[in-house]
Amino acid sequence: MRRQAMDRINKMKDPSFSNESPSFLMEGFLFSCFFAMLIFPNMVFSGNHWFQSLHLLKWVTAFVPIALIVLVLWASSFNKRVVFFFSVDFFALIWLAFLVYITLQPLWVPISSPPTFLRSWFFFAGLWVLYVVASNFFSMEFLSFMLWGSAISGTLSVFFAELQLRGMNGFFPFILATPGHYIANTGQQNMLGLWLAICVLNTMYLYIKKKTIVSGIPIIIFMAVIEWGLWNTTSRSAIFGIGAGIIFMLIMSLRTQSREIQKKSLAVILIFFVILGVTIEMNKGRIGTLRQKFADVLENPASVGKRDSIWLTSWYMFRSHPLQGVGLGQYKWHYLEAQRSMRALHPEKAWQFTYWAHNEYLQWLCETGIVGGLWLLLLAGWWLWSFGGIIWRKIRLPHEILWGTSLIALILGTGLWTRPFHRIENVLWMVVAFAIANKEILGTQPLFSFFRKSKKAFFTLLGVGVLLGLLFLGQGMYGDYLLSSSFNVKDVDLQRDYLERAGKSFMVQDLAQKQLAYHYLNTGERLRNPQMVSAGLNRLYDVFQHEPHGKDLGILLNWGHRLNNETLLNELSPYTQ
Question: Which of 353, 358, 357 lies closest to 337 in space, CA to CA?
Fold first, then answer.
């Protein structure tokens, strides 16, 4: 068993390229792309030159490297001097089958917001492409470099967050301008917590790989800094995640690793808790906030950390569309309607608006229905059954699998409490971890091996899809830039022209339509032009019908009262009861 496992890992170390030119050029290209997509997205943000000042550049640094890999492989498949092995396993095939299902979903599900659906579709499809590419071309020799990159990135993120907390970030334009918040460049406390949890787990694995205690000291220093930041985020979901990751690391070490690895695993877990103790003593303020959050969960278990209303609303949404779901990415646009049904029977629950279910599995069930739930259950059941079999039989595995399974557990654990699957910068790590771990956990042998002719056809399909995705992203970036530019001009007609042109970009069409409605309302109010106000209200109400949003509901209600428009108020009143 051990020999077979090592043989498979050795195959993973070589992306199986041969060429008359040096193969290190291709390997260097692959390394650069994987490094860029895994390390940079958590470090960058778009900035004030863009309407979406946080996420846009993250999407670019995540998806463009994936696209470049596919395009280079597409070109290589036509070059007779370049030979590379490429296959698709059963896990990828099941994933692809469901990708086809959600592609056809608009045929039987009324999609409220097509732009939202398409953005979500490219997101989901891009992850599938990454899994297939990483399964074939992510060399194990890359892994340590990726983990060291995350350690450096995580440490910088902690320094950024500390500067933000003290209001000292203004001197540094490359740090998100959010003084008083502990979020670095992730945009949200939970997401910084998740990123730092990933980085802590990565440093723990790097320590396990070291041969001596002395050589592990630099890693412990990085780990201490990052763990300090992890606890200071006060993110319960990140704590759940790192807890799940450590539990899996311990189980995998005790059942599948050598005695030497077991000792190092126990040592680094002990070091983790020592750092926790030091952090508690040195930073009672932030740790006190974290204690209060956990105390609230224990003292008010029925509120589930103030998620009870959201989860109950999500359940009512699923009950209304049990078989087919509301459509990929459409959860947020069905929330107010589902909340209305929920509060009709539970008026004591709080009224609120949110984009997310704060539980990835519940939101997946709402959007894809029973079919999506069964698909997820099939994959999870298969994976856990295979994992349990390995643990039960104590099969010796390469230590790279220790890292992969631990990271999968970490991210899937946070999915019970927040939304890691909707942040590309973090879910990419999970996909790569699956690509590494599945070769041993599932024992997935290649289901389809592509040779020259079939490889050309496959990469042609994939390449055309990638080009369409890049076109979608590029046009969306142009539309986003036009939206941002509309705020930088004073001429009303020029503002409107920017917004109308932005509306021609399908990726940001919904954003442009909403901003155009705001433009008519604000301009009409300022110029005392009732026709423009009326046009703005009509446009905003049309947007609200497709994308019901709490903010827009408030604006429409406000104008309804100001204009004494009983018709509008009656249409909106069910959402507020």
Answer: 353
